[in-house]
């Protein structure tokens, strides 16, 4: 999922360089959403992993 967030970020940067503001803004929003979903899933899996180690 982090890979897709980075892909959309690169698309946003390229679109911004060429002057496509609407496309760049849309790609940035998608990248932000995917990144935050990644962070939430990472935190949940980290906490679950810690709880499984506790005897």
Detail the poorly predicted runs. none
Biggest sheet descriptor? none
> What's the gyration radius in Å?
16 Å
- Large-scale geometry: rod-shaped
Helix/sheet category: mainly alpha
Oligomer: single chain
Order of helices and strands: HH
Helix content: over 70%
List the helices and strands and how they pair.
Blueprint: H1 2-17, H2 21-53
Summarize the structure.
This protein has 55 residues and is mainly α.
Summarize the structure in words.
With 55 residues, this protein is mainly alpha-helical. It has one domain. It is 89% helix and 0% strand. It is built from 2 helices and no strands. Helix 1 (2-17) runs antiparallel to helix 2 (21-53). The model has no long low-confidence stretch (mean pLDDT 87).
Key descriptive features of the protein:
2 helices, rod-shaped, mainly alpha, 55 residues
